Structure formats: structure tokens, C-alpha cells
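Hey team,

Filing this mostly as a record. A colleague (T.K.) asked me to run one chain through the structure pipeline before their review meeting, and I want the input and output archived in the tracker in case anyone asks later how it was produced. No errors, nothing strange. Just documentation.

Input sequence:
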Amino acid sequence: MDYQVHTLSNGIRLLYKYAASTITHTCFVINAGARDEQPQKDGLAHFIEHLLFKQTERRNTSQILNRLELVGADLNAYTTKEYTCIHASLLKQHLERTLDLFEDIIFHSTFPEEELTKERSVILDEIASYQDQPEEAIQDDFEGILFKGHPLGNNILGTEESVNQLSRTDINQFLADTYNTHQMVFAVIGDYDFNKLIKLVEKYLGAIPANTSAKNRQQPGKLISEYTVIEKPISQVHCVLGSLAYPSSHKYKNGLLLLNNLLGGMGMSSRLNLEIREKHGIAYTIESGYTPLTDTGIFSVYFGTDAEKSDKALRLVHKELKKLRDNKLGSLQLQQAKQKFIGQIALAEENRLSLIISMAKSLIDFNSIDSLQDVFDKMNAVTAEELLEISNEIFDPNNWATLIFEPKE
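Output structure:
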């Protein structure tokens, strides 16, 4: 076992992984995100994440921001559809200072009205800025199509209308309903004695009252295939096409991860990049992505190109998908795909912050964490027959949606 876990009486878990380094990476992951928002409360989880850095019972904004920056540490946070994560990278000796701050902002923020007003303005600017980046905005709009009428289809940032209506009452209700202490993990990767680490965590988090609120997450329905074209004041065509995919617990998750990497994942040697960018020279960016969630998943292909080349690019994407549906990978192709992906996974472990965040999420979702060797073994166990079955299920054009942003004439 290359990690250790200690559970506090209130349900909060400490996750520790040893690393021989003077640098520590730490995070506090909460199983609460945009999909947990009530109707007309879009953007609330993200709004709270911003406000955690504004004022607590003991600190003002300046004191919060300076607490770690004054010792050269890096503090940040983000919100997803299912999680809220606060994280920091710091010198080893500043862990207690960091934990003290985490406890303060997560459990003692006061959300004063003047800060709500200021942060609304900041987030509205963020929404406006986001809309000026079509390659980003199209991804969220595409998820709105995949999950139409479901909270997973809402933009994490919310809308101008929803953000303007969010109140402190909404914030307190969301925290009470979703910040379940049994669904929180404080994780550390660094060089510490685990028993001393337990005492430190008990000191700062042990007195937090337990919250056993139960989430009421609704599983999304089936995708209704559609083809949508929207005119925008842009210079290029942006296109996303894809479908619902396997959840994180599905037996074929690893197979789809491998297929995604082969088709349009990291590196210049993916099939889509070789065919569409290198061979035909019709798209600077062409990539695919697979995001497994707890009860569903998202598979998509994105490209941006000139208007006169977009139809050809779309045909070539479907051509590559059809190849995977019609032809089983040969043994050499399969071995090369596995070797490439396993190497990328191993290199990704060098990003220790991303690693500890991923481990914390795994502990929340599965109550366990695969070792690197476990991951390799599961990837090596994937067969060509499985990949063919996955391709015919996930890459079926009858179950795909397409969203295109095209320039206004």
C-alpha cells in the first residue's frame, strides 16, 4: 500500500502519500459541485468557491490571500460538476499554516453582503470572458445538449440571470445540503510522519461538527441525437461531436480511456491528429476527450478550422470513428496503444499536485485507490474484442450529438 488513510470521528478523511521532497502538495476535496445545485441556482457551487477566499470569522480577504503567499506558497481552487477542490503547493514546513487556513475558509467563511456583490461582478466578467473564447464555450454548450434538462447540462459558472439572484441564504442552504463531512478528504503528498500528521489534522479538523446530509443526485436520461449549428461573431468554425459514455465504475472505462488516447488523446501521433492535421492540414487543433462521472460519462471530439474546410474535417472524423467500429485492432497496434498510454500515465504521476487530487477523488468515489501497477494491469488486460465492442457502442453515429459554431456571414 503506497498511501495511508485516517478517518476522523466527524467523517472527514486524511489521505497521505509519502514523497521525499521539501515541497508539499495538499488539497481539500469536497464531493459537492454544480450538479448538486437546485433549479434556478446555476453557478452556486462556483460562487461559493470564490467567496471562500473573501472573509472568515478571523480573517479578511487580504489576510486570507497573504497567509500562504507571504511564505511563497501557491493557493488556488476550482469547481467541477461533482467536486469542489481547494489546493496548495508549499514548502514542507508550512503545512500547519496551510491546514489552519483551509479549516478557516471552508468552515468559517461569513459571506458578507458586500463581498457577494463584488464577487457577482467578478463572475459576470468571467462569464463574458468565457463567451469570447468559442473553443471553451462550445464545450459547455455541448454538455447542455448532452444533458438537456438535467443539472449536469448547466454551465458551472451559471448564467447572468442566475448569478445575479444568488443570495447568502442560498449559500448556507447549499453548504448544509451538500458539504457532507463523510464526503470530504484532506490529502497530502510530502515527507511527514503519519502519526504526527494525524495529530495535526485532529487539532484543526477534529472539532468540525459532522454533517451527514444525503445527496439526491438524479441520473441523466438518454441522449436525443441532434445536429445544431449556431452563428457567432467568430473567424473560424468550432465543432464538438460526441455522446454519453461510461461512468467511472463501468467495467469498460479503461477500454474507453485507451481508445480515447488512441483516437485523439495526448501527443501528435493520435489518429485524428495524423489524419486531419498532418495528412490533410485542415485543423490546427483536433482532439478527443473522455470524462467519466459517477453515473454517466462524456465522450467528445473537438476541432477548429476554416469555414470552407469544416465539412471535410467532419467527414474525416466520422471516417476515423468508423474504422474503429469496423476493424479490430491488430495485436501490434493494441500493444503500441497500451505502451504509449501507460508511459503517459507514468509521466503524469510526476505532477504530484494532480496526483494527490486524483487520489482524493478516488477515495471519495470508490473508498480505495489503485496503485500505479494496478492501473497498468487493468490497462494491459484490455482486449481488442472489448475495444471493438466499445467502439460500436460509444461511437454509434445514431447516438451522437453535434454542435457547430460558425462565423456570421
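Quick notes for T.K.: The first strand starts at residue 4 and ends at 7. The domain at 4-205 is CATH 3.30.830.10 (Cytochrome Bc1 Complex; Chain A, domain 1).
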